Amino acid sequence: MQNFTFYNPTKILFGKGQIGKIGKETKAFGTKALLVYGTGSIKKNGIYDTVVSSLTDAGIEIVDFPGARSNPVLSHAVTGIELARQEGVDVIVAVGGGSVIDTAKTIAVGAKTDEDVWKFFTREAAITGALPIVTVVTISASASEMNMAAVITKEQGAQKFSIRSPHIQPKTSILDPTVLFTLTPQYTAYSAVDIITHLLEGYFNNTEPDSILQDRIVEGLIRTVMESTETLLTERNHYNARANIMWAATLGFNGLTTAGMGVVALPAHMIEHSLSSLYDVPHGAGLSIVLPAWMLYVHEKRPAKIARFARRVFHIEKSTEIETARAGIERLKQWFASIGSYTSLADADIPDSDIAKIADNALALAKAWGLKDYTLVVIAEILKLGR
Amino acid sequence: MQNFTFYNPTKILFGKGQIGKIGKETKAFGTKALLVYGTGSIKKNGIYDTVVSSLTDAGIEIVDFPGARSNPVLSHAVTGIELARQEGVDVIVAVGGGSVIDTAKTIAVGAKTDEDVWKFFTREAAITGALPIVTVVTISASASEMNMAAVITKEQGAQKFSIRSPHIQPKTSILDPTVLFTLTPQYTAYSAVDIITHLLEGYFNNTEPDSILQDRIVEGLIRTVMESTETLLTERNHYNARANIMWAATLGFNGLTTAGMGVVALPAHMIEHSLSSLYDVPHGAGLSIVLPAWMLYVHEKRPAKIARFARRVFHIEKSTEIETARAGIERLKQWFASIGSYTSLADADIPDSDIAKIADNALALAKAWGLKDYTLVVIAEILKLGR
Asked: Which one of A134, B43, B206, B207 is separated from B111 by 20 to 30 angstroms, measured CA to CA?
C-alpha cells in the first residue's frame, strides 16, 4: 500500500424522507442560497417543492438557477457565477446528478474569485476557496456528492476538463433512494456503467498483491451494482436495489477504493469525455463503448488484473490468463448490452471515419491529465477496438 | 437498507514516515498539548522521540501524561482530566492503541466540564463538548482513531462502560504500519481477533438480502485480515500485511460496514468486557473465547448468516444451514487457536465456577447498552459454551 491521506468530511443523510432536512442543513452555512438544478424533472416529481418548502421554512432566501444539462457546459456555469456574485449568496444548493453538482461546484469556486474560472480547469490557477455546497442527489453515478472533483465542458473547442479541491467537497449530501424510482431504464443502465467504470479504472491501476484489501471491496461493490441493476430491469421501484446502487455509487468514487493505491489514471474516462463533448452521448453510454475497448487494448500486455476481474466477478476460468481476461471483457460487454447501454461507436451513430477527430480531441485532455502514454496513435487504436 | 447518517471527518495520514507530521497537524488546534501514552514502549521504539521533536519543532508546549494501561481505568483518566485543566491545554495528543486513545477521549470530555465524567458513561449526562484530539496509532484494532466511541473501566465494581459522541471523534490520526513491526505475535493475534469481532458483530446483526453491499465489504475485510495475520506469523515485518491490518482495523469499526444496518448490538463485546475487567485478560483474547460461544448459542435459531459466513470466508458447505453454520464456528475457533489466541475460559485460567460472577458483572453492561434479551441465564449459557 502506498502512503495516502484520506479526508472525506461530507455528511451523508441517506434514506427515505431525508430531503426535508435540506433547509436545516443549509441553514448552517447561510441565509441566502443559489438553487442549482437541471432542466425541470425535479419540478415534475415533487422534489423541487420539497426542497423549496424546506429551505423557506428554515428562513433561507432562494435564488433560482435552473438549466444545467447533462455534460454541463462552462457558459452556463459562468452565468451562475455572475448571478451568485450579483445576489451575494452564502451557499449553493445543488439538486440533481453529477452534472448539476459539478455545475454547482464550478459556481462555488467562481463566485469567490475574480479569476477566469476556466483557468482552474486548465491548471493555470489554483483554487483557494469556494462557497459551501449542499446537495440533494437525484441521479447516482458521479459520487460528486462526496468527493472533491468536478467536470465541465468548454463549448469552444469541446474541451471537457476537471477540477479537484477540498474547497468544493460538499458539506452535506442527501441521498434518498426513492428519488431514483423515476429514472428511466436507460438512465439506470448508464448510471450502472458509470459506477462500474469508476470502480474498474481504480482496480486496473492497482497492483497485486498490494491491493488485495481494495480489490475485494471493489469486487463486492461491482457484483452488488450488477445484481441490483438486473433487479431494477424488472422491478423499477425496488427500494433496496436503488439504495445499493446509490450507496455503491458514492463509495465507488469517494476515495475509499483507491486510498493507498497511488494516482488513478482514468484512461476510459479521458477518452469518453471526447465522445460526450463532441456528440452529446450520455456519459455512461460512452463509457460502455470505451472501457471494454481499453481493456482489449491492454489485456495482452497486462492480463493479470483483468483475469482476476473475470474470475472474481464472473467466475470465468480459461486455460491462460490472457484467455480468461479476454472472456471477461467479452462478458462485460454482453452485460452492458443486456442492460441496454451502448457497446460500440456504431451504437452511438458515430462513424469510424470520425476516429481521428475524436482522438485529436482526447489528446488535449490526455495532456492536461498527464497521461503521457496516450498518444494520438494509441487513442485511435483504442477507439478502433470500440467500433 | 435502513436510513442512516454517515459523517466521519477524521483526517487519516497513512504510511511510512507520516508520524513526523504530528506537530503540524496538532498546531491547527492549539499550542499546548497533553501527550497521552501508555507504559513506555513508545520510548523504546523511538516513536516518543519522533512525536516530541515534531511537536516541539511546531512550537507546541508538551504536558507529559504517561501510564495508560490496556483495559484503561477511570482513575487514571481522572488524573489526566485534572492535569489537563490545571495546565490549561488546548489539545490532546494520544500516542498508542485503543486504550490510550480512549483514555485521551475521556480526558478530552472531562476537561471541558465540571460534571463527574463517569456520568457520561452511565448515560446520566450528555456530552456537549471536548478538547480536540489528534492521534498516532501504535496498536491497530479498536478503530478508536476514526470513530466517536471510547471504553473505560471503573475499577470500583469493575464496570467497563462506553461513551459515544461526535465531540470525541479525532481530528487527525496518523497510521504508520512500520510501527506495528514491534508488536509481539501474541498482540498481533489479539488485534486480529478484535478486528474480526468488530466486523462480525455488525455482520451478524445485518439481515439479508438488505445487507448484501455491507456483507461483501465485511467478508473481503475479514479474509484480508486473516491472510495478513497468517503472513505475519512467519514474517513479522511484512509491510503490506501490517498495512492491510491497520487499514482494515480502521474501516472495520468506523461506521462504514454498519451504515444502513441499524443499531449494532455487540453482545460478544458486552460479555467480553466482563472478562477483561474482572481478570485483566487482553480484550482480543477474551473475544476469541466469547464470540464463538455466542455464535454457538444463536446458530440453531439463526443459522443463515453464520452459514453465509462459513461459505464466503471458509468455503464450507454442508448439507444443512445449521451444519454449515456449526462447521464455520468450529473453523473460526481453530483459526483463533492457530494464531495463538484463547478459545476457552480454561485457556485464560478462568474457572467454570466463576461463570455466575462473570454473568452478574456482564448484566450491568447489558442493561446499560439496552440488550434486553441478555438475562443472567442467557449470559451464563453463552459462557458455558465457552468453557
From this structure: B43
**How far is the C-alpha of B63 from the C-alpha of A255, rounded, in Å?**
36
Mutate to test the interface with A, among B213, B227, B315 (most CBs of A within 10 A): B213
Instruction: Please tell me the distance in Å from B251's CA to the nearest CA on chain A.
Output: 9
Which residues in chain A are contacts of B243 at CB distance < 8 A? 1, 260
Residue type, A193: V
Amino acid at A348: A
CB-based contact, A260 to chain B, within 8 Å: yes
Among B5, B227, B256, the residue with its CB nearest the CB of A13 is B5
**Burial (CB count <10 Å: 0-12, 13-18, 19+), residue B86:** exposed
Give the list of residues 6+ apart from residue B44 with CB closer than 8 angstroms, or none.
none
pLDDT in tens, chain A (387 residues): 999 999 999 999 999 999 999 999 999 999 999 999 999 889 999 999 999 999 999 999 999 999 999 889 999 999 999 999 999 999 999 999 999 999 999 999 999 999 999 999 988 999 999 999 999 999 999 999 999 999 999 988 878 889 999 999 999 999 999 999 999 999 999 999 999 999 999 999 888 788 999 999 999 999 999 999 999 999 999 999 999 999 999 999 999 999 999 888 899 999 999 998 899 799 999 999 999 999 999 999 999 999 999 999 999 999 999 999 999 999 999 999 999 999 999 999 999 999 999 999 999 889 888 899 999 999 999 999 999
Query: Is A166 touching B (CB cutoff 8 A)?
Result: no
Q: Which of A213, A239, A240 sits opposite B244 (nearest CB)?
A: A213
Quick check: A34 and A67 in contact, CB under 8 A? no
Residue B294 to residue B362: CA distance in whole angstroms? 14
- The residue type of B213 is L
B340's torsion region: left (phi>0), alpha (psi -120 to 50) or beta?
Answer: left
Task: Judge: domain B11-178, CATH 3.40.50.1970.
Answer: yes
- What is the spatial distance between Cα B139 and Cα B250, in angstroms, rounded to a whole number? 11
Are the beta carbons of B5 and A11 separated by less than 8 Å? yes
**Contact at 8 Å (CB) between B127 and B165?**
yes
Q: pTM (2 decimals)?
A: 0.96
Quick one: DSSP state of residue A167?
G
C-alpha to C-alpha distance for A78 and A59, rounded to whole angstroms: 27
Q: Which CATH class is domain B183-385?
A: mainly alpha
B256 touches chain A (CB under 8 A): yes
- Is residue B224 exposed (0-12), middle (13-18) or buried (19+ Cβ within 10 Å)? buried
**Does A240 sit within 8 Å of B259, measured CB to CB?**
no
Residue spans per domain, chain B: 11-178, 183-385
Please tell me the CATH superfamily of domain A183-384, with its number: Dehydroquinate synthase-like - alpha domain (1.20.1090.10)
Task: Enter the ipTM.
Answer: 0.95
B177 part of contact set with chain A, CB < 8 Å: yes
Contact A220 B224 (CB under 8 A): no
The count of CB pairs under 8 A between chains A and B is 113
